């Protein structure tokens, strides 16, 4: 049976697709996903931003949907979750300033639980100090943060993802099929009980 309870840490101006798509896809596959935001309660919403690639030097940004949170950040305990999802967008740049968010991210790495981060989600990983020696993809503008945190930046196609043990990362939402497929494979592998050799 796969690991079933997943925590998603998000915030205002999280990337629309990078929040909505994994949240709904994981629910559709039978996982329980609790989406939380510091300072907000279940039933409240975060504003999302739509980042698109329209031929400019960087992505464009437009206002997206309101994403409804289904759990309260102050009430959840990381130890009660099997895995963590960190969407990108603008939220990670300020969420990384929250000591409780950093503590939560570190818990998943210390416990060896599956973690999926996409795009600017790597900013949270870098701030939590969990990237040393780890291969990590991210939006290309986050490459310096990955490398300054001791990570190995995976310079891959925008439609690809990379796994390094329990960590699955990707550059941006066009990688969703690969990113989610790899994450679910890690989730399934993490739930296989160890057997003792006779």
TrEMBL record:
Domain DJ-1/PfpI, chain residue ranges per copy: 5-184
Top-level taxonomic group: Bacteria
Transmembrane region(s): none
Its EC number(s): 3.2.-.-
InterPro entries: C56_PfpI-like (IPR006286), Class_I_gatase-like (IPR029062), DJ-1/PfpI (IPR002818)
BP GO annotations: proteolysis
Annotated family: Belongs to the peptidase C56 family.
Protein name: Protease I
Species this chain originates from: Rhizobium aethiopicum
